[in-house]
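Notes from the pairing session

We agreed to fold both candidates in a single pass and log them together. This is the raw record for the first candidate, unedited. Please don't reformat it; downstream parsing expects exactly this layout.

Candidate A
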Amino acid sequence: MVSEKDIEEIAIKFTKGERPKGSQQIFVRRCRSLFGLDCHLITIVWSSLETSGILQSMPQKKTVHLMMALHFMKSYGIQTQLASMFGVDEKTYRKWVWLYINAIRKLSRFYVSENYDYYYIS
C-alpha cells in the first residue's frame, strides 16, 4: 500500500527537490500545478486503482508512472520535454502515460454514474 508520505517524496523531486521552507500550502499548490491533484488525492487515485484490481494487469506498478500520466494530463506538453523531466526517454514515457491514463479511465465506472441528466441553459 502506498502512503501519502511516499507520494510526497516523489513530488518533492519535481518541486525543486526540496520541501518549501514556507508552509505546507506552498507545497500543495506546487503539487496541484504539476499534477492537477495534491498528494492526498493522488494517494486516493492510486488506492482506487489497486482496490478495483485495475493495476493487476500492469507489467510494473510504480507511483511515479501514475504521476507522469497526471502531469501529462495537466500540462499536455511536448513529450521530449516531459520525458526529460521524469528522466526517461520518449518511448518509455509514452508507454507509461497511456497505460495509466487508460487505467484512470477505467475508474470512471466506479465513480461516474451512467444516469446522466443533461441540463441546457438557453
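Candidate B (folded immediately after A)
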Amino acid sequence: MILAELLPQRANLIFKRGVAYTQSRVVCNVHWYSDILAGRLIGTTVFSLLHTKLEFLQDMKLAKEELLYAKRPDRMICKEEKDGLHIELGL
C-alpha cells in the first residue's frame, strides 16, 4: 500500500502482484486463506493508522521527493551506479 501510494501510476500492478503473492502462499500450503485475509485486514489497519503519525507523513513526503528526483533525466549519478543498475523500475 505504501508503494502504491508512492507510485500511483503503478498501483494496479503493485496490488495485482500482492494478491498473486498472497494466493501463492495458499497454493503452496504455507498459509490458510483465513491467514491471508487477516493479514490484509491488519495491513490495511496499520496503513491507515500510520497516516495519523506526523513522522510517517514526513517520511512519505521525503520518499515522494526522492522518487521525483530519481525520474529526472538530469540527475547526477556516478558511473558505478549507472553500470550496476540491472533492475528496471520504470522511473
